[in-house]
Amino acid sequence: MASKIAIIITSTRNPRVGPHVADLVHNILKPTAASSSATLSVVDLATFKLPIFDEPVVPANVPARGSFIHEHSKRWSAEIASHDAYVLLVPEYNYGVAGSTKNAIDYLKNEWDGKPAAIVSYGISGAKIASEQVKTSLEGVGLRVSATRPQLAFPGGVGPEAFLAVGEGKLGDASKKEWEENHGEEIVQSFKEILEALANPVEKKN
After folding, report:
1. In angstroms, what CA-CA distances link 20 with 17, 65, 99, 149?
2. Per-residue pLDDT for 83 more than 70?
3. Quick one: three-class SS letters along 7-37?
4. Disulfide check for 148: which of 9, 73, 190, 191 has CB 3.0–4.6 Å away?
5. What is the pTM of this model?
């Protein structure tokens, strides 16, 4: 059976460049996914409109000792449960993980637990801090995070490429070229580590 792998856009504010980063990463990964019989789909967190966690039950207790009551939680839970692994696209805001990213992770526990995930971060300096923070959070909910974590920096730092992304939500040609040429293999490697993890599942702890 083909593995279902989600590329998750974790940014939600506007303007945002996340959907364009997803297109780029998706195109880079398609040949490898096709050769491994994996199916890729893009999941946009913004469409779920998750508020700050507002359920009366702790995520770790779902479904064994409770269930979600809000439709947004049920939709997010069902979406994440339907995939075997994930590639999270993570922006960095003010030297840290975006609130939307952290909130989406914290909404769930058992839907994530034991599954592989890769982190592709992006920002003015590559979003190293956000990548580290997300890695810690994902491992905390039981995900198996790929060792390779591509960090995509806008060429020129604080300059035209960054301003285009932040101000207009567009990915400039220089950024596309830089990321494809200098980080394409790294993005594929992180994905191959997902596939390897899927081929070697671990038993969940009780």
Report:
1. 6, 40, 20, 19
2. yes
3. EEECCCCCCCCHHHHHHHHHHHHHHHHHHCC
4. 190
5. 0.96
